[in-house]
Amino acid sequence: MASGSTIMDPICLVRNQNNQLTVNPRALKILEQISQPVVVVAIAGLYRTGKSYLMNRLAGQNHGFRLGSTVRSETKGIWMWCVPHPSKENHTLVLLDTEGLGDVEKGDSKNDSWIFALAVLLSSTFIYNSISTINHQALEQLHYVTELTKLIRTKSSPSSDEEEDSAKFVSFFPDFIWTVRDFMLELEFDDYPITEDEYLENALKLIPGKDPQIQNSNMPRECIRKFFPKRKCFVFDRPTNDRRLLLHIEELSDDQLDVNFQKQSKDFCSYVFTHAKPKTLREGITVTGGGLGTLVEAYVDAINSGGVPCLENAVITLAERENSVAVQKAADHYSEQMTQRLNLPTDTLQELLEVHAACEKEAIAIFMRDSFKDDRQMFQKKLTDIMEKKKDSFMIQSEEASVKYCEAELKQLSESLMKSISGGTFFVPGGHSLYLEARNKFEQDYKLVPRKGVKANQVLQSFLQSQQGVEEAILKADQALTDGDKAVAAECAKKDAAEREQELLRQKQIEEEQNLEAQERSFKENLAQLQEKMDRERESLRRQQEMMLEHKLKMQKELLTEGFKKEAEALNKEIAQLKEGIQTTEKSFNISDVLDMASVTLIAVLPGAYKVAGMGLKLLSDRMKAAEKP
Ligand SMILES: Nc1nc2c(ncn2[C@@H]2O[C@H](COP(=O)(O)OP(=O)(O)OP(=O)(O)O)[C@@H](O)[C@H]2O)c(=O)[nH]1
Ligand SMILES: [Mg+2]
């Protein structure tokens, strides 16, 4: 299972033994290997209501999650089944089957609430399964949903206002599907045919009256409407009227099932496959298989430590994991691409730096795509550091390759020159001028060798330096020259050597400048991509806030038409806060973010710090000016 998923057997994800919840490490390993986004469909509901059977149908299998044919509850804890998504490419469908709620044989029902809360928190589509009709009794049984506000918190600092806190659940919570099994009624209201969704919406309308039973069933009604803006309902006929067959339902082929049930379950599955979204946490943070594992661990840890699972903390825990993975992925991409695209030795340093810039740009894009909530750019800095070090190492490799290649070429080209020297060819009258001629020819030949790399001059220079003594000896021995000629020739040789030395220094200086420019480019690229990401995040935050506002306004309108004026007015405060929030987001340009980022990235590119500091400040002042404009 490299990145996706293959068919595996269902496995227990969260054990529920002796009233203690524990995460199964084997299940975490499986999730760890799924780097694809996950569509998580969880089911919860009373025990022995055909939940596991329905989940098996979503997996397209008869066998999978274990069914029980006695009245004792079968599924314990939360079970998981990862299958390739049947229609969304590169997505994994994670089915979560939960232990039936309300089993009287269980001593303690506290864990029921946790199992219910976990199923809500982990899924992107949450199915509530019940039998026969959505009536008062069914709604009272759904009291777990009203307990969510006590069990979960959005922010780690306890909010004084539980109402306000729970309003934010919406952006974390899954879509809601109510499945009604063995549905015997006609779908109609006041003698008019209605859809399944209308049936659900009617059932969720608040009932006027002071009767405690009515008030008890109004609470889940309100909570479902408040927490789950997207709702859907599916009703199912009894799969077969033959009781004996029903007991062994997993052995039945489709054509042995009631035709209505066949169609209903087909419609249900196709709805889930088409509409169930990948799991996200607010602000469009997509959760992968590994991320889901991190979430399970974080939530179960919080529950076991007696705390209240906090959604914001889960985001932070997940961010740490995903950001580390993003750094690794981006850095690997950089190394791979550099190795692939570089032809070592590169002819010039500039050639290497250009390939570096292109690979770095891609790597930053990968990091930006996969990371989130890297508020202080710690992970971005880490990536910049890694790439800077890798770039240095590629530069060294290029230099070493250049030295090796040049030395080999030089050895070959200088062979005849060396032979002539050792054979005494130049130790004759006029030998010095013969030597210079031969050496020039060798130098010309060497210059013509292509792609010698950055060390071409240095290798030549070292060779020529090593020959200085030889030239002096030849000059000394040349009887065709006067002492004056010799002095001039020696002076000339010295001058040439100094010039070559000078040339080497110039080259070094140019390379340093090029390197500095590359760092500036890198800084700009980091900043540009970061700004883009911040803009995108702001946009998605605004969308999310608007979605929440829209939902509240809709709810308020519905309550008013249903005649619940007081309840509708109670929403005014939340609505005002949401409107204020949207205004702040729209105006928000977070100066401190840019400052932080500029300074952090500065440290990352220390050699060019003084230049980059100026750039950072200029960018900052540009943005401040832009923000001041009305
Ligand atoms: N009447 C009826 N029975 C069903 C339906 N689906 C499954 N069953 C029967 O109910 C039994 C239990 O089904 P499961 O899928 O194990 O039910 P569950 O809700 O997962 O049960 P727990 O895990 O114990 O909570 C099966 O053996 C079937 O006999 C259905 O739609 N209607
Ligand atoms: Mg079950």
TrEMBL record:
Residues annotated as domain GB1/RHD3-type G: 35-277
Keywords from the named record: Coiled coil, GTP-binding, Hydrolase, Immunity, Innate immunity, Nucleotide-binding
Organism: Rangifer tarandus platyrhynchus
Family, per entry: Belongs to the TRAFAC class dynamin-like GTPase superfamily. GB1/RHD3 GTPase family.
Designated name of the protein: GB1/RHD3-type G domain-containing protein
UniProt xrefs under SUPFAM superfamilies: Interferon-induced guanylate-binding protein 1 (GBP1), C-terminal domain, P-loop containing nucleoside triphosphate hydrolases
Keyword Nucleotide-binding: yes
Tagged with keyword Coiled coil: yes
Pfam families: GBP, GBP_C
Coiled-coil regions listed in the entry: 494-588
Record InterPro entries: G_GB1_RHD3_dom, GBP_C, Guanylate-bd/ATL_C, Guanylate-bd_C_sf, Guanylate-bd_N, P-loop_NTPase
Database matches in PROSITE patterns: G_GB1_RHD3
PANTHER family membership: GUANYLATE BINDING PROTEIN
